[in-house]
Amino acid sequence: xxxxxxFAFQPPDSGQSERKGGGGPSVAISGSGTHLTxxxxxxxxxxxxxxxxxxxxxxxxxxxxxxGRSGGGKSTMLRLISGLTAPDTGAILHNGEALAGxxxxxxxxxxDARLLPWQRVLSNVGIARGPGWEQRSLEALRAxxxxxxxxxxxxxxxxxxxxxxxxxxxLVARPHLLLLDEPLGALDALTxxxxxxxxxxxWLGQGFTAILVTHDVAEAVALSDRVLLxxxxxxxxxxxxxxxxxxxxxxxxxxxxxxxILDLLLT
Amino acid sequence: xxxxxxAASIEARPRRRSVFQARRIVPWLLPxxxxxxxQIGAETGWITMRTLPPPLSILTAAISxxxxxxxxxxxxxxxxxxALGFLIGGGLGFGLGxxxxxSRPAELTLDTSLQMLRNVxxxxxxxxxxxxxxxxxxxxxxxxxxxxxxxxxxxTFHGVRMVEKSLIEMGRIYHLGSWAMxxxxxxxxxxxxxxxxxxxxxxxxxxxxxxxxxxSSSSGIGYMTMNAxxxxxxxxxxxxxxxxxxxxxxxxxxxRWLEHRLLAWHHNFQSGAEA
Lengths: 267, 275
Prior knowledge:
Strand order of the largest sheet of chain A: 6-7-8-3-9-10
Radius of gyration of chain B: 24 Å
Largest sheet of chain A: 6 strands, mixed
CATH architecture of the largest domain in chain B: Orthogonal Bundle
CATH superfamily of the largest domain in chain A: P-loop containing nucleotide triphosphate hydrolases
Oligomer: heterodimer
Number of strands of chain B: 0
CATH superfamily of the largest domain in chain B: MetI-like
Distance between the termini of chain A: 23 Å
Strand content of chain B: under 5%
Largest interface: A-B, 22 and 25 residues
Low-confidence stretches of chain A: 1-30
Mean pLDDT of chain B: 87
Shape of chain B: flat
Number of domains of chain A: 2
Number of domains of chain B: 2
Helix content of chain B: over 70%
Number of helices of chain A: 8
Radius of gyration of chain A: 18 Å
Order of helices and strands of chain A: HEEEHEEEHHHEHEHEEH
Strand content of chain A: 15-25%
């Protein structure tokens, strides 16, 4: 977990409020994030309530993390937002439009990379095809530093490389909303740190809304504008994190917030 | 494929080449020895001609039969029957396997009936088939098609059902249409299982054909051997058996080739890639 201590890809920035104006040299802010609204959304499975009626608004372009114990409804919430699962009650609105079926301009990374083993890396990235997909996929692979592996089978890649390919696939369609369902959970600490920096850098560059489900409170604090603690199907804590990026994991504010959330989580 | 693999193979080259050559030779040692002992046994009178004619006289029989064009004609007829029966039965099995694998209502309607039919050994209905079709071509095609149908149906069906749900979910997130989902996710995912069905099906093709041609036929390899039996031409009978073995082997090689082409991504075929 402490294989690195800074997020140093991006030149120092004075925080979320100035993110949209500034950015790095090669960065084009499109401001194309999805604004998300959940209106009394609830979900149960087989008589067991997983999410109690829930209201939530997520600002366009923000990075929100959802933490909480296993079975607390984190992944369910992400699946509801993606449209993979339909809510029992309530409505989910993407930019004000109620969701019907799979969410538009939304991509998702899962715990496992879910690459098609029978397609080369490039074809996996460009799974949605469309005009110029090969060129666009190659560019997305370049962004995650794997353009030299475009012609390989996914089976020869390491776990971290597979997730980077999955990230390239998620970004090639220029999503307005990126859902991350613990995509780094199975990676070693060093790879994990690299991936966190990569995700943060691409998020800063592309301006999509990001929602990250994670077990790792430190990860949530280091990456997010806002951390939601989901417990017994309700939001037990909604914490805005207004710290400048890149954040040092060892900075006292980061550690302070981390222990605050952990205290709540463990009681 | 990888740089590491290449480096390793350079170091190991001399040893590997000799191992490679030994691997090609060793499997043929036992068959070759058998042939030699068999030939000597026959010539010394240890094995009687009537029981087991020596390899050389089988070869002579093959040459004299092919001089008249008889051998080629019979082999061709048998091969045509095998191919056509396999295509009909395999095609139907593949189609219905896909249908029932992809559609729950279709499975509900058809699968139980098909499972009941599956439990009837297809060779057991030969008397029935002769009553229906006589001893013409259709009888043999029907039997082969029936035999091939089930392994391909079952393996296609299970292959489609065994495609990982997580990959289908991923496809949905990327808004794959049903056609793209089928071609890029479901069919390739089911392919290893489908090819197992093809391999089983080919085995059953030859087995069925042997039985069908032996029991009721006026042409083909089975007919040729049964005819030779009447005249006590043991060498021709053995020739027929050997040809069946050879054709079966060829069919198996064709499937292996198909597997190499269609399952190139499969880890089994990526030699050295992960070493």
